[in-house]
Write a structure and sequence with these properties.
mainly alpha; 0% strand
Length: 280
Amino acid sequence: MRRLLNLLWRILTAPLRVIFWPSRKIRDFINFEPEEAPTSELFARTMENPKVLFEHIFALRKHLFRALIALFITTGISFTFAGKILNFLALPIGGIESLQAIEVTESIGAFMRVSLLSGIALAFPYILFETFTFINPGLKRRERIFVLVSIPFAAILFLGGFAFAYFIMLPTALPFLLDFMGIKTIPRPSNYIRFVTNLMFWIGMAFQFPLVIYILASLGIVNARSLLRGWRIAIVGIAVMAAVITPTIDPVNMALVMLPMIVLYFVSIVLAGIAHIRRG
């Protein structure tokens, strides 16, 4: 009789358990506390039992695979509106009719590149979430909540970098680049779209820097004083990064990438100081 009543109770409450299951899983996910142990002890355990290291590698592979699946899906969805995005990206040079292809597959390559950039933008929050779930077991409850709440802000900053590159940087740079020394330039789709998508993607990634520094400073990993002392090294590193990012070797393109990254670095120092004050 008791079993029958328990079964009836489980059937009646099944809809409520289904509704509240996600909140319970999220609560358990957040409230989980990692084992407290010194780094040297964890390293010694790993050396004694290498199987633990392989478990982490397999977990990383699982998260990477799910992130790639999400990117594949969002890129596939982007195919439906990539043409409109391509038209939008070509507006700063007068529209898509201002581009001239000289290779058979050039237009297709530009279309695919735009689809991939759009897919990355759509999948970015989920990719961040998969990154978070991988590092989650090593975080404390306060750190876990802090990093989890930062994911929407990271996505907003990523899109903000896109907007900054498109609405601020491109209108400033293109008139100079397209009419340098009075030589009229007719852009090719592959070259122009590669230039624009590279600029938008890396500026979007650069816009993550203040948030990353703020998180690290809030966790006590970095501080504003050390960042300020290393500003010269940071500028050299930014210059090297800009040289790698830019599709050409001219100083104009490098400056376009360097200037916002340098500004963001000093903004990060200010945010690190604020985080230190809040912690203290």
